UniProtKB/TrEMBL annotation:
Protein name stated in the entry: Cytochrome c oxidase polypeptide 4
Catalytic activity from the UniProt record: 4 Fe(II)-[cytochrome c] + O2 + 8 H(+)(in) = 4 Fe(III)-[cytochrome c] + 2 H2O + 4 H(+)(out)
Species of provenance: Auritidibacter ignavus
GO cellular component: plasma membrane
Membrane topology recorded in Swiss-Prot or TrEMBL: Multi-pass membrane protein
Length: 133
């Protein structure tokens, strides 16, 4: 995890340097790109901070050891439902939302309602029915 923390810290510092150069290159007149670069730096450092907190809480990963191998990462990463249709419906709802932004707002609201339906279905997939926990 420590290499990932270092990478995101470097990316954040890079975006701060680019933001300062961009400020002087545009003579402080362009007020869209400047905050965007600083926001990118802040987001990189937020990810770095999250990884640092996670690294403190959990044991050292294979990437932190000199003799660590890729196969050391093998194991269970979570519980996934290969039979689930909810993600497909959510993807279609997202496509309808994008179509609604391009074509008409009434389509956007239909896509948002569909998205909410499929998102709730996916969240509560293991709460009811045959696969309830």
């Amino acid at each position: 995890m420590k290499p990932s923390i270092a990478v995101f810290n470097i990316i954040g510092a890079f975006f701060v340097i680019v933001a300062v150069i961009y400020m002087f290159a545009t003579r402080f007149t362009e007020w869209v790109g400047i905050p965007a670069f600083f926001a990118l730096a802040a987001m990189s450092w937020m990810i770095s901070f999250y990884l640092w907190l996670t690294d403190r809480k959990f044991k050292t990963g294979p990437s932190d050891r000199e003799d660590g191998e890729i196969e050391d990462y093998s194991g269970t990463y979570g519980s996934f439902a290969p039979w689930s249709w909810w993600p497909l419906g959510l993807g279609v709802a997202c496509a309808v939302i994008v179509l609604g932004v391009a074509v008409g707002w009434w389509i956007f609201f239909i896509g948002a309602a569909l998205g909410l339906f499929f998102l709730i279905g996916w969240v509560f997939e293991f709460s009811t029915g045959e696969h309830a926990h």
